[in-house]
Amino acid sequence: SRLATLIGGDNGESDVLAGTFHSVCLRILRRHADEAGLRSGFTIYDSDDTKRAIIACMKELGIDDKTLAPRLVQNTISSAKDRLITPVEFAAAVGNDYNRERISGIYDLYQRHLTAANAVDFDDIIMKTVELLRGHDEIRDYYNHRFKYVCVDEYQDTNTAQFRLIHLLASTKGDNGETLHNLCVVGDDDQSIYKFRGANIKNILNFENSYPETEVIKLEENYRSTQNILDAANAVIKKN
């Protein structure tokens, strides 16, 4: 509401779409469920739903959860989806790793379980949106024009799937056919703490390589902390 008031415009709030990656992607998937390979009214599995489904898949495949922890399977599948790796691609990269071979079979069956249940898990929300935009030029073109400008906060905490999503959404074509990257990101590589959750620090470190026309604006004035706190924090950061 504050953004809509600030920006103004004839359509008011409808011109502004602000939210988390997942909430924005969910709106896109709800609107284009058929093209995304889903049926209208699809459900979303939370972490507990996902774990139960994985355990069911393991039982169906005859895999004892005492020899392969369901939590490890869940985390591995989640990590694969964060990197946009499909079950087929995961299987192709297994090699001679026995556990990953078993996880590969579980991943494939788990995705088929989700399809049969007309459901997605939390990681699918972004992965399926990326696949949707990649596979349907007319839908991607619509959102390229729908989102004239894209602004991303806490960019240092984005993962590979989110990076691809941003790139697809912020690739608007100009009147002469040139690509206009109308993208603004805000972030600080010294504040990247979510590697364990799939964050890819290279997204911010390599931003200027990904978008050569980038203008960097440094925000070096701190309005929140006293000098003692800043000195202590900077002393830690120097050891990064």
Report on this model:
- With 240 residues, the chain is mainly alpha-helical.
- It is 51% helix and 7% strand.
- The strands form three sheets. A two-stranded parallel sheet has the order 1-2. A two-stranded parallel sheet has the order 3-6.
- Strand 4 (172-173) and strand 5 (179-180) form a beta hairpin.
- The chain is globular.
- The mean pLDDT is 91.
Question: What is the compact description of this entry?
Answer:
With 240 residues, this protein is mainly α. The chain has twelve helices and six strands.
**Largest sheet, strands/sense/barrel:** 2 strands, parallel
Radius of gyration: 21 Å
SSE-based structural type: mainly alpha
How large is the share of residues in beta strands?
A: 5-15%
Task: Give the total of beta strands.
Answer: 6
Task: Report the span from N to C terminus.
Answer: 39 Å
Shape: globular
**Element pattern in H and E:** HHEHHHHEHHEHEEEHHH
Mean pLDDT: 91
Helix proportion of residues, in percent? Answer: 40-55%
Strand order of the largest sheet: 1-2
